Amino acid sequence: MKTIEISVNDQDVSKLRSFLTKLDFVKLIKEKKSVEIDSATRLSEQSLAEEWESKEDSRYEKYFKK
Questions:
Q1: Is 55 domain-assigned?
Q2: 38-62: average pLDDT
């Protein structure tokens, strides 16, 4: 089974839900609340990515890729 995430405008949720309930192959319709990301996290994302994706971290990848 696969899970697909679809984003729609708030006013269109009921239309989409109505459409999806008519399809016999849809197993589950679940509404998720969107999570706001705080500004400190957004600001630190780039600097953290530089550390996580550094050349030092990727030097062993050639040994593990087979």
A1: yes
A2: 78
